[in-house]
Amino acid sequence: MKPAILTFDQTPAFSIPVRFFLAAPLFGVMAAVTLIYYGPSALTTRWSAATLALTHLLTLGYLAQIMVGAMIQLLAVLAGSPLPRPHMTASIVYVTLIAGVLLLTSAFFHEGSLLSGLALGLIATGFGSFVAGIVWSLSRSRSRSRHPSVRGMSFATVGLVITVLLGLYLGAAHSGLSSQPTPTGLTDVHAAWGLLGWVMLLVMSVAYQVVPMFQSTPDYPVGMTRWLVPSLFVALLTWSASELCQIAFCGPALGMLHIVSLGSCAAAVAAFAVVTLGLQQRRRRRMSDVTLWSWRVAMASALMAAGLWTVGQVLPSVALDARYPIALGVLMLVGFAMAVVNGMLYKIVPFLVWLHTSAHLKRQGRNPRAAPRMQHVIPPPRMRDQFWMQQIGFMLLLWAVLWPSPWVYPAGVMLAVSSGMLWWNLLSATRLYQKMTR
Questions:
Q1: Dihedral in degrees, nearest 10, Cα atoms 135, 137, 138, 140
Q2: What pTM does this model have?
Q3: What is the pLDDT of residue 62?
C-alpha cells in the first residue's frame, strides 16, 4: 500500500484536538466512580440504570471524545482537508457532547422527558455538527478515492450516523418521548453499529496508516486495505436488515443470511486482529513501547470477543446467560477500544507537541530543533505505569463479570486510577507545549 502524503501545513491548532483528549480520561474516572458506587448491580444485567450510564460514559464520553479529536486531526493531515471553521466547529461539538453525555447519564437515574429531551438534543447537535464538518471535508479531499484510510473514515462516518440515529430513537422511547415499544433486537443493532460500525471501522482505517508509521511494521496487505472495511460494513448492514425484518414482522430472522452476515462480522474482526499481530511480529525495530503493548492487548481482546460470540452462537445456553452480553461489552469497550485509543494517544499527543513547538520556534526565527523530542514529552515510565494500571483494572473487571462481589470494587479503583494517570500525562504534555511556546 502506498503511504498517504501527509499535509502538516494544514494541521489544526494544538488546542483543537487536545481539548477532546483531555476531556476523555475524566469520563473514564466518572465511569469508574459509577462502577464503585453501584457495585455488583452495575454488572448484573445490561438493562439496569447503572449499566446504561456506565456504558454511555465510556462510549459517548471516553471513546467518542478521543475519536472525534483524532479524526479532526487526521482529516487535516491525512485527507488534506481540515474542518470548516475548525475553532468554531470543534467548540460546538465539544460543549454539546460533554453537556449531552452528562445530562443523558443523569436521565438514566431520573426518568423524565424534559431531561432526556435536552440531553438527546445536545447530543444530536454535537454529532450533527461533527458529521456535517466531516462530510464537507471528505467531499473536498483529493485523497478520499485513493487512500484506504480516507475511504475507511467515510464508512466509519456513516456508521456513526446510523449509531446516533438509533440511539436517539431508543433514548426517546426510553424517556417516554415516543410511544413506540423498543424491542431488545433494536438495542442490539444500536450496540453493534456503535462498536463495529463506528469504533472498529475507524480503528481499522486509522491502523492502515499509523501502525506501519509508528510501529515500524510492514504495510497491511493491499487486498485487506481495499476490502476489509467495506466487507465489514456490508455484513453489518445485512445483519441489521435481517434483525429489523425480524422485529417488524415478529418472525424468525432471515435464516442463512442472518448467520452468514454475523459470521462475516466476526471473521472480519478476527482477520484484522490476526494480521495486525502478525505485522507487529515483523516490525523492523524490535524495541517495544506502550503503544505496541496497547495494540496487542486490543487485538487479543478483539479475538476473545469474536471467540466468545462464536461460542454463544453454538451454545444458546451461553448466549442466554445475563453475563454474556456484559462480558462481550467489557472485552470490546475496555479490552479493545480503550486500550487501542490509549496507545494511540501516547503517539498522537507527543507528535502534536513536537510538531506545533517546532513550527512556533521556526516562526520566531529560532532553531526548531530545540523542540522536545517525542519520547521526551511524556516520560516512558509514567506511560508504562498507567498502562499496567489499566490492564490490571481490565482483568479485574473481567473477573468481576463472573463474580461481581467483591471484585467490582478493586476493578473500579484501578480503572479510576489509570484514567486519572492518563489525564495527568496528557496534561503534562500540554503544559510542556505551553511552556515551550510562551
A1: 120
A2: 0.91
A3: 96
How far is residue 276 from each of residues 109, 191, 270, measured CA to CA in Å?
40, 24, 10
d(CA 377, CA 392): 25
Query: Is residue 246 within 8 Å of residue 252, measured between CB atoms?
Result: yes
Grid cell, residue 272, equals: 484484522
In whole numbers, what is the pLDDT of the chain averaged over residues? 88
Residues 6+ apart with CB under 8 A from 237: none
d(CA 413, CA 411): 5
Output the pLDDT for position 54: 94
Which residue do the cell numbers 449509531 mark? 163
Which residue, 7, 22, 108, 10, is CA-closest to 429?
Answer: 22
CA–CA separation, 306 and 311 (whole Å):
9
Q: Where are the domains of the chain?
A: 8-436
Cα separation of 344 and 338, whole Å? 10
- Report the distance separating Cα 235 and Cα 344, nearest Å: 27
In single-letter form, the type of residue at position 308 comes to: L
Look-up of cell digits 507537541: 353
CA dihedral 364→365→367→372, nearest 10 degrees, is 10
Query: In degrees to the nearest 10, what's the CA dihedral of 384, 387, 392, 398?
Result: -160
CA-atom Rg of the chain in angstroms = 21
Classify 85 in phi/psi space as left (phi over 0), alpha (psi -120 to 50) or beta: left
Contact 360, 85 (CB under 8 A): no
Provide mean pLDDT across the span 234-259. Answer: 76
215, 298 in Cβ contact below 8 A?
A: no
Query: What superfamily in CATH does domain 8-436 come from?
Result: Cytochrome c oxidase-like, subunit I domain (1.20.210.10)
What is the CA 57 to chain-centroid distance, rounded? 12
